Structures are given as C-alpha cells and as structure tokens.
Amino acid sequence: MENINNTHLAPVWPRIVAGSIVASSGEGVWLHAADGRTFLDFTSGIGVTGTGHCHPRVVAAIQEQASRLIHGQLNIVYHEPAIRLTQALAEIVPEGLDTFFFANSGAEIVEGAVKLVKQATRRPNIIVFSGSFHGRTHLAMSMTTSRTIYRARYQPLVPGVFVAPYPYAFRFGWDADTTTDFCLDQLRHLLKSQTAPEETAAIFLEPVLGEGGYVVPPKRFVQELRALCDEQDILLVADEIQSGFGRTGRWFCMEHFGVAPDVICMAKGMASGMPISCLAARRELFDAQVPGSHGGTYGGNPIACAAAYATIETIRDEGLLENAAAMGARLIGGLTEIAEEFPAIGEVRGLGLMIGTEMVTDDGKPNPGLASAVTRNAFESGLLLLTCGTYGNVIRWIPPLVAREEDIDHALDVFRSALRTAHAYA
Question: DSSP letter at 64?
C-alpha cells in the first residue's frame, strides 16, 4: 500500500506509536509488515491472539467450518459448533455455571450481563470499581472509569451505576491489608449511602484491572467481596474479557483467589482472533430472563464457535496454561531485575502473562512520558508493547501464551535498551 495516510478508516482508532504498520501476516509471536519489517508482538492484539498468530489448529478449524456453514442464526437453528463449544466451556468454567449466551465483543457481552442480572434480580443498580474498563458502548462506557477519554462529550451516561474504590495498593501507598480494609469499608459505605443492597443487582469486578493499570487485587479482598455479595444477596460478575482463557496461567483469573463468581464475561482470547464473546451463568439466572428480551444476529457464529473450540483444545493439549505461568514468572523475574537498575519502574506486578510495569518520576508520581518513550523505542527495535493506566504510565505485557524462553529474553533485552535510551534523552 503506497499511502496509508490516505486510508478511509475512521481516525477514531488511534495508533499506538507514531509510525504505522500495515500487517501482511503473522505467525506465533511474530507479526510481519508489508514493508518487510518483523515485530515481536507482545500486545497479542490487546490480549486476543493467545495461541499466537494463525495457529495451524485454529486456522484448520476456521477453514473447515467455512466450507460447511458460515452463518446459522441461533433464533432459527442450532448448529454443531455452538453445541460443541458449550460442552467444552462447561468443562473449564467454575462448577454450576452451566449455561452460555454468545455475542461478538466484550462490550456487547458486558451489556448482556447487565441485562441478565437486572432481570434475574429485579433490581435496577450495579456497582463497578474505579479504574475499570468494561467497554465503549453507551452502557459499558457508563461502567468504565479507567480514563475520561472514554466518557468525555458522550454524557449524560446511563444511570444506576455506582463506583467503589479498587484495591490499588501501589497508588494508595499502603500494604495489601490496609488497602483491602479501606476498599471493603468504602464498599460497605456505598451500600449504606448510595445504592441499598435490595436495589443492587450485581457487583462487576475485573479480577486483574485491565486498562486501568494491570493491578492485581489482594486475595483477601476478592474472597471477602464474595462473602459480602453472599451476605447481601448481590450477584458477583467477573469481567474476564482480558484475563480469561489462560492469560493469567489459569483458565480464568478468579481461580487464583479460590472464588467462583455468579456470572463470567469472556471474549478476547476466546477464539484466537475471531469475534466472539460469551456469558456464563447458572441456568436459573437465564431462566429468569424473558425470552426474546435479549439476543443478536451474529452471536454464536459457526466459524467463530469452531475457532473457540479449537482454541480451548489447543490451550489444553499444548499445555499453554502451564507455559503462561512459567513464562510469566520468567518475565516478572527479568523485569524485577531491570527495575533494580531503573528506579523509574515503580512496580512490577501481574499474574501469568498479564503483567504491568508502572513508570514513575523521582518523587513517585505517574510518568506517562517515560512510558510512551520506552514503548516508542521498543517499537523502533521491533518489539510491540502497549501502555495502560489512568495516566498512561503503565507498560503492559501481554505476549501470546505460546511465547518461549528465547522470546521472553529477547523482549527483556529490547526493553532494557529502550529504557536506557529513554533515560538518556529524558
């Protein structure tokens, strides 16, 4: 393509760096550009290509299904890929979550979850956490508090959404127990002051804060949140859109905390790049929903379902959960060593291959300029990284689950060099 600046694509899609890439192909952890450049892709399309680019098993499933049935609308017909996928999902979600609804995107499935919990409980309100990202459609945007850019000039927002503090210990400057006690106390205060339990349908939790900074909550916080929901008869919804399907070294991140939610939202890594999302819940919750009050034309597309089933098989058969845990430990270890050399890395945190490095100034304030410079330098050296966080000062590491030791080590070398260069010109 001669002039990519003449593209007719809407400019509302920003570029992650000043330079542009026209991707021609991808294989595993590598992304190939039309101009001959090759990039080590540690973005995974924002956590989507968990099995790597164009995994042969997923490609074969897509090709085979495309030759048989491209579209089968679930109001009209059942089809084998959807039925087979529900059976596979039932084996990996927490026990009791036995019923599934399919859509196309993360925001779409969050909206479906809100509609489900409202009808099932007959309650009007929901609670989310500060720094959360649940999507950019109007309702999901009203639940998103990671950055003002997602809400600015779109107001007024959907009412009935209340915000509690997320246990972001590094930002508060407290230890895990102090942070947990404060956040739980504030949540209880919210239930006394703004939305009573009897009018609160559900609490939505990202088990690792995603766009808000890749923050891992203390285990006790999640466990006591579950207990609070049980005590007040409030549903607990886990937004596992970014943290699910092996990203944290478990099928779903909530497993790390020994807690089962009432509802799981999933998407992103579910089908290795095909558009599909899913809602998992107990049958009794779905039975309370009026038939026809929710749906969608493309949800549960046969090709996407086939890709999702192949993704689950690939993760299981190739030991990608174990690999994510091992490579994540290697990456955290390497980043921790680099942080000892560069105090500008305020914290290294994460689970599995969902890791954040928070960049700070000398006095501990957010340093988005450094984070941007480092990712730009890394890009110029062939490593794709993303930033996140309310201030844009967290570099997030989300490589494909198929990443090997040599990929991790190469990325660490590039990152160290990019950080040195950024420091030299700071």
Answer: H
